[in-house]
Backbone:
């Protein structure tokens, strides 16, 4: 299964100590073998990617448990808050996940009531698999 065909992928980002943190994420295909997803500028994933662009991605279930028989893919992440890649990922996420996008946005809002504001999907992460150009 291609990464972009998966409904969920486990995205592993790395702390300054080098330890990995894996989180389940939606994923969409981009040109040139790249894939992309959205995250919040206040998320730990965003913070870790600002410090270290290395990622490992693998098809998973909604809880981030990797799929049997799937292989991890190493890559390099770029962060975007505007531009062609940002627009393409936003559009493709809405097309692929449909009604789940506003439902997820609602749960994000409800989950942060009374806490610091957490923008929903204001950053796009574009992953170029190692060995791709």
Residues:
């Amino acid at each position: 299964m291609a990464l972009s065909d998966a409904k969920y992928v486990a995205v592993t980002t790395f702390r300054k100590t080098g330890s990995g943190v894996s989180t389940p994420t939606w994923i969409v295909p981009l040109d040139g073998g790249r894939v992309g997803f959205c995250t919040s500028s206040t998320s730990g994933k965003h913070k870790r990617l600002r410090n270290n662009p290395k990622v490992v991605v693998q098809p998973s279930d909604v809880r981030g448990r990797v799929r049997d028989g799937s292989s991890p893919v190493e890559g390099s992440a770029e962060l975007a808050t505007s531009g062609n890649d940002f627009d393409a990922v936003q559009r493709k996420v809405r097309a692929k996940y449909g009604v789940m996008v506003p439902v997820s946005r609602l749960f994000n809002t409800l989950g942060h009531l009374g806490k610091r504001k957490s923008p929903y999907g204001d950053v796009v992460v574009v992953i170029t698999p190692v060995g791709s150009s």
Summary: The first strand starts at residue 8 and ends at 14.
